């Protein structure tokens, strides 16, 4: 078991470096890659199938806590965070993020990958189409914004992602300037990841099949491996933005997501 854990840790170091690079380059949360990668890696480290999706989602959210915190801090320094927007979304985001772990517990384990696959499929289509808003609309009322935040938080927590792929189009639709939408989404992503992670930790406490070195459903060897390298390579990804055709890369990444979602739905 010790050897399989060390193998998993090594694989997660590689995974983290790729995730960090793509996150910096494409401005996407790493969960879209981390969850399917862990679904493939964890069984080879002896993780029980009944625990598989819960551990993948929880560990992904825990890794996003660290990367989104660094991203949010950078955007705050650049003045890209609109706190009036974050303030109206935050209550719903936190409730939705916590609710994701509750819903994940209620959904039978064999259906969770399919739920993830559908969410990723929709995100991939949105990324491929890159719909742009031509008519700005004012932000809805505080109650409607909280409801919107709840939906974003719930779907993001269920998919183990930071939610930038949902939050940026939502804010853009309501006329928030793109730079501020991305900056605000980074802070929103941190709130989603923290609330989702806490929910999955409490949901997993006392579960019989949990592996050693777990905190609730968060599997520490995988988390440390992913975080150790992703936080380093994110800055290199950001530096490559001006040198590579980002729009083309986003479409290629969306095609990869389509393949992943179809594979997970069919399996």
UniProtKB/TrEMBL annotation:
Transmembrane segment boundaries: 12-39, 51-72, 84-104, 110-129, 141-161, 181-205, 217-236, 248-266
Source species: Photobacterium phosphoreum
Record family assignment: Belongs to the 4-toluene sulfonate uptake permease (TSUP) (TC 2.A.102) family.
Lineage: Bacteria, Pseudomonadati, Pseudomonadota, Gammaproteobacteria, Vibrionales
Keywords: Cell membrane, Membrane, Transmembrane, Transmembrane helix
Membrane topology: Multi-pass membrane protein
Transport listed as a keyword: no
Record localization: Cell membrane; Membrane
One Gene Ontology cellular component: plasma membrane
Protein name, UniProt field: Probable membrane transporter protein
Any Pfam family hit: TauE
InterPro entries (alphabetical): TM_pro_TauE-like (IPR002781)
